[in-house]
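2.7 Reproducibility. Because tokenized structures are sensitive to small changes in the input, we list the exact sequence used for Outer membrane stress sensor protease DegS, including any N-terminal residues retained from the expression construct. No trimming or masking was applied before prediction.
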Amino acid sequence: MMRKLWILFAQATTIGLAVFFVLSTLKPGLLPAKAPNGVITLHESVQPHPTRSGEPPAAGFRAAAQKVMPTVVNVFTSTEIKKSTHPLMDDPRFRFFFGDELDNSQQHGSNLGSGVIISQNGYILTNSHVVEAADQIEVALADGRKTRARIIGSDPESDLAVIKIDLPGIIPAITFGHPDQAQVGDIVLAIGNPFGVGQTVTMGIVSAVKRNHLGLNTFENFIQTDAAINPGNSGGALVDINGNLIGINSAIYSPNGGSLGIGFAIPVSTAKKIMEQIIQNGSVTRGWIGVAVQELTPELAKPDNIQGILISEVVRGGPAEKGGVRSGDILTMVDNIQLQSDSSSMLETIASLPPGKVVMLKLLRNQRKVVVQVKVGKRPIPKNLE
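Resulting structure tokens (single pass, no recycling of outputs):
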């Protein structure tokens, strides 16, 4: 009896070893593997699982890039530049031999930038400096189509402009991200046409938000990023990893014109407000009270740690003067809005007010509280922008 049991055990063991040998040689993936920590896991296929279309899922940020790239365009502009005629062109003998070949009294300069299609109607958001003074604008889409564009409106103080194209067929449009979506450390993609080499995607992170006092624009609230932004990227898209627009690339910090990892984009919250006004009215209207301001020094803020802004000058005949504001006043509140000791925030607060509205200004004058009423005026165009 024991002999038969031993024979059966030996045969079963032999068959088991044979099966294990065959599987380990021909089908090792069917056997369990022991992880270094002693946990038994199953081998997984090195091939990605196919999608419904039979294609493997997108790797990295491919999906975001493919979503955005059709909506980012190249913007080419030309400007007629008048040039003084060479003095020798006034000599009849010189003109007899050389004719008018050297008479280049008019030349054409060119500019190159990027833009973002924001509507299937063909509206494109770009930088004001890309299209300023342009006699002709041409737009090239990612699918190879090219067409002329016309300027709907421009706002040099925020460096934003809207242009429009008219094309048959489908015009792709970008998806806007949440206005306050960008946070320090977020991964972002910058898409544009740097140096005219063609559409390019670069990656980085949000390095900082609400950057101002850079001297680039009158109204500044930049997103700072280390995604490579170079000349030609201006007006292009800064997007999140889902392909949603969070900013319009505008400027770089660079002594030689190349990317040093410090780029600035206008946040979508600002861009959307400007865009809507330009499309509706052709221009941007801002509030103005006619004062020059400067930030409070620690000495002026003492002893009560005053929060506000110092009125350094009052425009003669302006809304503030008519309302009773004086030079040397400290403006602390506009209606119920508490001002910080930051000239940029004060400028934004006043600019957001509709012209014609009467507001209450709370002031400190010689350490006494004063309240005046001011009728908001329309912000004039700076003389250097007219």
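Residues 2-26 form the longest helix (25 residues).
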